[in-house]
């Protein structure tokens, strides 16, 4: 079709992969939700920096000056990318998991935490204990608002934090973040947005959403691994002990004989001890810049056109059930999880890879509670689902290949026989 906008190109778009027959086909990467392929502009930006990277904030040499500048420019880029307030801090982390753990370690004592029970483990597990309230999955995005309000009413006086996912990594469904933030405000709570799946697919604007923190990962945003960010209010992070201790997090260390006197740095350096990942954050910033320059309208239109085609195709597969958190059809990013009655997800995923060169994910997607609950609803016989996820590397051919391959696998079965090895199916 000619009505699907072109989008920034990813590295490896024409990579060929071996099939079990010995033939090769171009790889159909339908696993963007796990990690997205790198953009060509990101690779070029990294290439340019590689000869120059050196110690950030510490060295006087030219390369150190270049790296320090690149690192701090990346902070500004991230700030712009999420529309941060001027008072917000941008702490570079390894990924969303790291960002949310940092926030969890920085909460004032006895902060009440409220979250929905469908969260990804990265947002579900850092807060545990008596001060945490898990809200049952609501039936619709609109029903999430009163459900959150009811939970906030039960919170004792004191600091409160709501944690919410922007887009589910299981179903792609969007949560009504601005409405949830408005409720949080009314009850004096802060709100942290897990934007791991939202930021690669939709614009995130801290001020427009009125959220306090945003956590995201570079590797889901078309940059390689190792860099993420926590962006938001500085005060709790400033009052907290450094997340890691070591060089970079300190202004001064004095030997008082029986103990060391340490003056910790202010945020963001306070939580960035050790030599930082300057190449990683440069890559992340290059990805943000490329997306912003290209424009969200075209990126969203590309993905939504492919998503519609994918979902329509999946509906024609006998026995296939798409998973949804909410009842009815609601706005979602390009992530679709499904089961196929009578077919084991792991085996289908293995056959898609071995016989068709298609990469999907199978399992419970680091969101065990959510995935199992959704599987129970469709009366699945197993604890695993399949997930196809779209992004800038996706094409009409990838989508059509998946739908055709699933139809053949379901109606005729795999062409090869598969055996289980270390919990995975191999031909
Ligand atoms: N939250 C969501 C919604 C995610 O999809 C993921 C990654 N699957 C994470 C958090 C964690 O991201 P990372 O593994 O990059 O820390």
Automatic annotation (TrEMBL):
Gene3D superfamilies under this entry? Aspartate Aminotransferase, domain 1, Type I PLP-dependent aspartate aminotransferase-like (Major domain)
The answer to whether UniProt assigns keyword Metal-binding to this entry is: no
The chemistry this enzyme catalyses reads: (sulfur carrier)-H + L-cysteine = (sulfur carrier)-SH + L-alanine
A Pfam family (short name) is Aminotran_5
Entry keywords, A to Z: Lyase, Pyridoxal phosphate
The Aminotransferase class V domain is annotated at 29-402
Q: Does the keyword Chaperone apply?
A: no
A molecular-function term among this protein's GO annotations: cysteine desulfurase activity
Q: Which InterPro entries match?
A: Aminotrans_V_dom, Aminotrans_V_PyrdxlP_BS, PyrdxlP-dep_Trfase, PyrdxlP-dep_Trfase_major, PyrdxlP-dep_Trfase_small
Its recorded name reads Selenocysteine lyase/cysteine desulfurase
